[in-house]
Structures are given as structure tokens and as C-alpha cells.
Design a protein that fits this description.
Strand order of the largest sheet: 9-6-5-4-3-2-1-10
Number of strands: 29
Largest sheet: 8 strands, parallel
Radius of gyration: 27 Å
Distance between the termini: 9 Å
Helix content: 25-40%
Bound molecules: beta-D-glucopyranose
Shape: globular
Length: about 800
């Protein structure tokens, strides 16, 4: 297949194609200046005037960031921040959480330092600030950009009230391997969904106007490809081809930059042998030259100093490499502060390099209005008001994914729960833990605000609710360590005297409790404190401790079981899928966990979440994702047994497990059913040049009727997938290219349309140009990545 190149054009077409060629360039190199505010005339003039007055030490001071609050990594500096602030030698402080503490340092910087440059306070606001919402992976399961915006907005307002105008969010790393604990902070495995979420985060935080008093600047992290860590082990190297890097891993960052992101955070990992925090290809070539990014890049915690461990030079060398590659601010490592100035003085680093980094940082400070309004008014103490709770509950309700709801003989479907269930047994270590409901990276969230499933269920059921914890999240001494774990991972003294929990005894008690009930709800998963988030990779994906044993023991009672999974990563649920009739994936739902779960379990709210990441049958399938590249020996037939002949053997398969996900990307059931019409395409054929010209507009439109054929109202996430059947570079077997949430009353149908243009149909060719070629696209529309309703689009030369 030919792609559109200049030599393939006839003179006659040239006029017609002038616009197309412009679009081609525009499409492959997104518009420069994605955030005009950062480079406005006014901001530029103020930045340049200030820069001219700065000494080298003051400039280098702007490149330094320290944690004056708690530590979120190893080796905190603990310097004298009062003194540094007063001397103008600190550009930013992180992890200070109150108007009082930020004002303290701001007064020193603004009133005592020679040039009165305000400090930029930064903070991990990841899924809400004081009000803890569900974790980002759960939020992505809503497939609802409006929901993300709500969470970002409330986080921004609460962060601003605490003196924080800069948040280390969104995390847009593609995560295709749930062994990596940080999948919890991501939007999962897919670049299209991830990009939609990334845009929504940026919009919600920045509101397209950094100068608004309730806007915060984002820091999109972790640039780049941090989620591609080999073997899912945190901080590990990333090694991937440039096409995958760009087409999959970089897409959500690009979307965030195009949406106006003010800052990015450079990651810990290396990419194809070059550490990401000293990588001119990603930090300068792609980010600045191709994407036109004008904000600044902060390193991740100590990532500049850790370059030494990547063996690319001594202190002076690695700091120079990081700065010259495009890292502007050094988080916590303090290497810029100690070795850059001397190298400028000796001529090793041109001062213009330092100037450029300072310029980028000052731009963000000016755009945020910090020079004009450096302080934060001290307001009333935070409270989880009914309005905040209502927002947290509504969001959580959208994030639950009903994985399975098979009818039970003599009972029917277990969910939604009805009055027939007179006695309900609630069992499991996650049924009544406030801390665990918040999830990893609930940095300023206070567990005291969290309402557990037990609390909410007992409000609903009174003495019809029976309860047994069943076991801990971990077994033996580990269970005690876990009970005393703090956010920073330190165990609090006193664990020595705690009796070691006896799983067998507590499981036996739980079995007795289940026997007394009509139905058992098991709340199982993993610990947010130790097993999820940063530095929480796992080599296995099952329930931790004795939870699997507990599950099997309760199922063995013969009582119908509903499993509620509370975890920040896709767990291995194969046994449960075979033996438990109803499974609800509930992630880490935030402060309104209990009420939101109860409303969904009882059918006040119909579940509508869809998986943002595939759930495996076995950990050995990882990394497992639906958008796989084709193989010359595709697997077919029944893979549930050993091959019986060479035809069954010599294909891309496992000997001991099926290839497919247990529950695939996009999967999620409802209490109602939806049907799909045969999709239609507005034009079955489109000339290639029209697609180049389409830019953000559709060249063709796919239409489908979606109908609620069940008995209750429900919301379906309608998904569109494509496959490019004949490209110069092989393309995934399926790729998500559109989705829409549609709410339908019983019997109601709606017509849904999806645009297809350059954005949806293009890919990177071998020359690393985003392009479209003559080909046929297969197109499917449906309620998951298994969608079968099909049409096609032919792209002609
Ligand atoms: C994490 C970042 C976080 C930073 C600041 C690092 O350890 O990787 O995601 O923003 O700490 O707390």
C-alpha cells in the first residue's frame, strides 16, 4: 500500500492538496504553543525583565525543589528551608499542606529575598485532595471524562485552599502489566482511553486559564513510558521500539500537552538505554520541538541524583546531562543546587541553558498569578460536607464494574440484592477498614471520613446484617506489620506485643456466620498501604494472605456468594470466576465506599463501569492487553486443553492456559441488557487525501442504534474498535477509537455516532511519520473489546 507522499501526487491535484499537506504537517506535528498563556506578551516581558536582574545563584535556586513536608521517596534533604527561602534559593517546595505552612515560606521568599520571587508549592493531589475519590484506575473505569473533570475540579479547589497551586497529576503512564503497582494511578492499558482521561484531568485542574484563583497547574507524569517497566518491577528499565513508544505510550502525554499542561515530571526509568531524566530525545526533540511544550519539566523525586546509579557519569556530569536534556527543576536530589553553578562558571555549561530552564519555571509562576497573589487566605478547617460526600459517592458509583452476575438455581441473579435476602453475611478484611477504602496515594485524605461497607450495610439492614472479618489482608507477622504501616512505609513501634492472627480460627468463624445467612458478601482484595501504588510491584496477582482460603471456605458452605473485589490492580480471579456467581470490581472507592457500594448492590444505582485494563487468567499472561499486534500463527479454536496435533500446537498459545483475558478490556455488565443494531458507515469509501485534510473533523461517521432491552434504566458505554487490515507497519488486532456513555430507559433506543478522521485512523509508519494509507478498516461497535457488530471503511488512493 502506498502512503501519501509528494511524489505520488499529480500536478492537477496540487491545488486541492495544498490544504491537505498543511494538515499532514499539522497532524504529525501538533500545533506549536499548546498553552498560549505561558508565552503571552505580558508573561514573556515580565519573565525577561526579571531574568536580567538575577544572579547565577538566584537562577540556580529556581531550579531547586525540596520536600519541606513529609517524604515520598528515599533520602530527603532536610536542609534549612527558611534560610534558603529568604535567600531566594528555592524555586519550589513540595508536600506542605496548609495555608499557614505555605504562607510561612512564601513570606520569607517574597519579603526577604532580593528579587521577591514567590515559591511554587507542589503536592501529590492524585484522586482528590482532602476529599478522597476513587483511585485513578477506578476513575478510568467510568469511561467518563466529565467525572474526571469533577474530581480534578474539587481537588484543585481544596488544594488551593491549602496554598497549593501545582499538583503532581495526572499520571498518564500506559500500564499494561498489573504486576506494576502504579497501575492504580493510571488510566490502564489503552492509549485512546488514556488520552481522553488525560485531557479531562488537565481541563479540570487548569480550566484553560491558569490565572483563575481556583485553577492549579498540572504536572503530567511520569515522562516517559514509566509504565513500560520490564517485568512490571517498579523503577525498572523500559525497552521498546519507537513506534510502540509513540503510538501507545506517548499518546496520553501528547494529549495532555495539547490540552495545555503547564508542567511535566520526568521519570525514573531509562528508555532504550537512555535515562528518561537525561533524555534529549523525549525531553527536547519530542516534547519541545515536536509538541511545542512551553512549560517546565520537574524531575521525579531524586531522579537527577539517581542518574549516577544508571552509570552515565559522576555528579557533575549527570546533572549537566539532565539539565541539557531538558529537566528544568530537580526534585529533592539537590544536585542542580550543588554542581551546576560551578560548571557555568568554568564554561562547561553555557549560562543560556540555565536561563532557559529558569525562564520556563518563571513562566508558570507568572501565568499562575503567583507574583500578584502569592499568599493563601486561611479559611475554615476542612470538613467532608454533605455536598463533598455526594460528589464522592456519585463518582464512586460510576466506577464499579459488574464482572459477573450469573443466575443461581432457585434464586435467580444475586444482584441487585432484594428483600428476599433476609439475612446477609458480610465477610472479609476489607469490609470494615476505613484506611483501606482510600487507596494508595490518598496523600491528604483522612481515613476518619471513610464510610466502610459494613457501616453502610448495617444502616440499610440493621440486625439483618451479620459480620465476620474472616482473616487479615496478610497472614502471620506480616498482618501485624500491615496494621501499623504508615503512608511512608514505616512501621510504628509496638508490633512486638501483638498476638499473631490465627487465620484458621477466624475463617471457621466466618464460615459459621455465612451458614446463618441467606447470602454472603465477601469484601476481598489487597492492601492499599503496602501492596498498591509506588514501590508495590507484585510477582503474583492473587488475593493476599489467607483470603483465597476464606473465599473457598465460604463458597463451600453452599450459600450464594457475592464477591466485592477491592484492589488497585487487576487481580487474578480465575477461581472466583468459576465458583462465585456474582463479582463486582470495586477498586479503592474513596470516602464514600460503603454508601456507593450499597446503592449499587441494592440496585438504587445500576452499575455502568467498564474495565480499563484486562483481567488475566494467570499472572504468566502479563503483560496482557487487547490491542496486541498480529502474529503469523494466530491462535484459534479451543485453547482450554493440550494440543492434540501439530495444527493445534504450532500456534501462538500457552500449553497450560488460554490466551484470552478472563475479563477483557471494556468489559462490564449491567442490571439491564443492551442490544446493538448493525452499524452503518456514512461513506464506505474515502479517498486518502480527504483523511489527511480531516484533521480533527470526521471523514466518515459510524452510526449505531443502541437499545435498552431489559427492565430497568441503565447506562451503557458504547465502544468503537477498528482494525487496519493492510498497513505498511503491522497494526493491532483491535484498537479503541471512540466511546460514548449512553443512558437509556427500559425499551428506549438512541442513535450514537462516532467520527473517523486522521486522529482515529492514522498510525506511525517505518519513517516515524503519522500517516494514513490506502487500506480497509474493519470496524466493530459494542459494549466491550469483544464487540461483534461490524462494518468497514475503505480508504482509497
Ligand atoms: C513519585 C511521584 C510523586 C513524587 C512527589 C515520587 O516518588 O514517583 O509520582 O509525584 O514522588 O511526591
Amino acid at each position: 500500500m502506498k502512503s501519501l507522499t509528494l511524489c505520488s501526487l499529480r500536478p492537477l491535484s496540487l491545488l486541492l492538496l495544498a490544504a491537505s499537506l498543511f494538515s499532514l504537517t499539522a497532524a504529525s506535528q501538533p500545533a506549536p504553543r499548546p498553552n498560549p498563556q505561558l508565552v503571552s506578551k505580558d508573561v514573556n516581558a515580565r519573565v525577561e525583565a526579571l531574568l536580567r536582574q538575577m544572579t547565577l545563584d538566584e537562577k540556580v535556586g529556581q531550579l531547586a525543589q525540596f520536600s519541606a513536608g513529609f517524604a515520598t521517596g528515599p533520602g530527603a534533604n532536610n536542609l534549612r528551608y527558611d534560610e534558603l527561602a529568604a535567600k531566594g534559593q528555592v524555586g519550589s517546595l513540595l508536600s506542605l499542606v496548609s495555608a499557614e505552612s505555605t504562607n510561612h515560606y512564601q513570606h520569607l521568599a517574597v519579603e526577604k529575598s532580593r528579587l521577591h520571587i514567590p515559591i511554587l508549592f507542589g503536592m501529590d493531589v492524585i484522586h482528590g485532595h482532602r476529599t478522597t475519590f476513587p483511585v485513578p484506575l477506578a476513575l478510568a473505569a467510568s469511561w467518563d471524562p466529565a467525572t474526571i473533570e469533577t474530581v480534578a475540579r474539587m481537588g484543585a479547589v481544596e488544594a488551593r485552599a491549602d496554598g497549593i497551586p501545582w499538583v503532581f497529576s495526572p499520571m498518564v503512564d500506559i500500564a499494561r502489566d498489573p504486576r506494576w503497582g502504579r497501575i492504580i494511578e493510571s488510566a490502564g492499558e489503552d492509549p485512546y482511553l488514556g488520552s481522553a482521561m488525560a485531557r479531562a484531568w488537565v481541563k479540570g485542574y487548569q480550566q484553560d486559564d491558569l490565572s483563575k484563583p481556583d485553577s492549579v497547574a498540572v504536572s503530567v507524569k511520569h515522562f516517559a513510558a514509566y509504565g513500560g517497566a520490564i517485568a512490571g518491577r517498579d523503577y525498572n528499565a523500559v525497552d521498546m521500539g519507537e513506534i510502540t513508544l509513540r503510538q501507545v505510550y506517548l499518546e496520553p502525554y501528547r494529549a495532555a500537552v495539547e490540552a495545555g499542561a503547564a508542567t511535566l515530571m520526568s521519570s525514573f526509568n531509562s528508555i532504550n538505554g537512555i535515562p528518561a531524566s537525561a533524555n534529549p530525545f523525549t525531553l527536547t526533540q519530542i516534547l519541545r520541538k515536536e509538541w511545542g511544550f512551553d512549560g517546565f519539566v520537574v524531575s521525579d523525586w531524586g531522579a537527577v541524583a539517581e542518574l549516577r546509579n544508571h552509570s552515565i557519569g559522576d555528579d557533575a556530569t549527570v546533572a549537566r546531562k539532565a539539565l541539557e536534556a531538558g529537566v528544568d527543576m530537580d526534585m529533592e536530589g539537590n544536585l542542580f543546587g550543588t554542581v551546576i553553578a560551578a560548571q557555568v562558571r568554568s564554561g562547561k555549561i553555557p549560562e543560556a541553558v540555565v536561563d532557559e530552564a529558569v525562564r520556563r519555571i518563571l513562566r508558570v509562576k507568572f501565568a499562575l498569578g503567583l507574583f500578584d497573589h502569592p499568599y493563601t487566605a486561611e479559611g475554615p478547617a476542612y470538613d467532608a460536607t454533605p455536598e463533598r460526600r455526594a460528589a464522592a459517592r456519585k463518582v464512586a458509583e460510576e466506577t464499579f464494574v459488574l464482572l459477573k452476575n450469573d443466575p443461581v438455581e432457585g434464586v435467580g441473579a444475586l444482584l441487585p440484592l432484594t428483600a428476599k435476602a433476609k439475612k446477609v453475611a458480610l465477610i472479609g478484611p476489607l469490609a470494615d477498614s476505613q484506611t483501606e477504602m482510600l487507596g494508595a496515594w490518598a496523600v491528604t485524605g483522612d481515613p476518619k471520613y471513610a464510610v466502610t461497607l459494613k457501616t453502610a450495610l448495617s444502616e440499610r439492614l440493621g440486625d439483618r446484617l451479620l459480620y465476620a472479618q474472616g482473616c487479615d489482608l496478610l497472614s502471620g507477622e506480616d498482618a501485624n506489620v500491615l496494621k501499623q504501616a504508615s503512608f511512608t512505609g514505616q512501621a510504628v513501634a509496638g508490633s512486638k506485643d501483638m498476638p499473631i492472627p490465627d487465620d484458621q480460627k477466624t475463617i471457621a468463624e466466618a464460615v459459621e456466620t455465612a451458614k446463618k445467612a441467606d447470602v454472603a458478601i465477601l469484601a476481598l482484595g489487597e492492601s492499599a498501604s503496602w501492596m498498591e501504588g509506588e514501590a508495590a510491584s507484585r510477582a503474583t496477582l492473587g488475593f493476599t494472605g489467607a483470603q483465597q482460603q476464606l473465599l473457598e471456605a465460604v463458597v463451600a458452605t453452599g450459600k450464594p456468594v457475592i464477591l466485592v473485589v477491592l484492589a488497585g490492580r487487576p487481580l487474578e480471579l480465575k477461581w472466583a470466576a468459576q465458583h462465585v456467581p456474582a463479582i463486582l470490581e470495586a477498586w479503592s472507592p474513596g470516602i464514600e465506599a460503603g454508601p456507593a457500594l450499597v446503592r449499587v448492590l441494592f440496585g438504587d444505582v445500576n452499575p455502568s463501569g467498564k474495565l480499563p485494563a484486562s483481567l488475566p487468567r494467570a499472572v504468566g499472561q502479563e503483560p496482557l492487553y487487547y490491542a496486541q499486534l498480529p502474529t503469523g500463527r494466530p491462535a484459534h479454536g479451543d485453547l482450554g486443553h493440550l494440543p492434540r496435533d501439530p495444527g493445534e500446537r504450532f500456534m501462538s498459545r500457552y500449553m497450560d492456559e488460554e490466551n484470552s483475558a478472563l475479563y477483557p478490556f471494556g468489559w462490564g455488565l449491567s442490571y439491564t441488557r443492551f442490544s446493538y443494531s448493525q452499524p452503518t458507515i456514512s461513506r464506505p469509501e474515502v479517498p486518502m487525501r480527504e483523511i489527511f485534510a480531516s484533521g480533527h473533523h470526521p471523514a466518515a461517521t459510524v452510526g449505531v442504534e443502541v437499545k435498552n432491552t431489559g427492565g430497568v434504566a441503565g447506562t451503557e458505554v458504547v465502544q468503537l474498535y477498528i482494525r487496519n487490515t493492510s498497513a505498511s507497519v503491522e497494526q493491532p488486532v483491535r484498537e479503541l477509537k471512540g466511546f460514548a456513555r449512553v443512558t437509556l430507559a427500559p425499551g428506549e433506543s438512541k442513535h450514537v455516532e462516532f467520527p473517523l478522521g486522521f486522529d482515529e485512523l492514522s498510525f506511525y509508519n517505518a519513517e516515524i511519520h503519522r500517516t494514513v494509507e490506502a487500506t480497509t478498516y474493519k470496524i466493530w461497535v459494542g459494549g466491550s473489546s469483544l464487540a461483534t457488530a461490524e462494518t468497514s471503511l475503505q480508504v482509497t488512493e
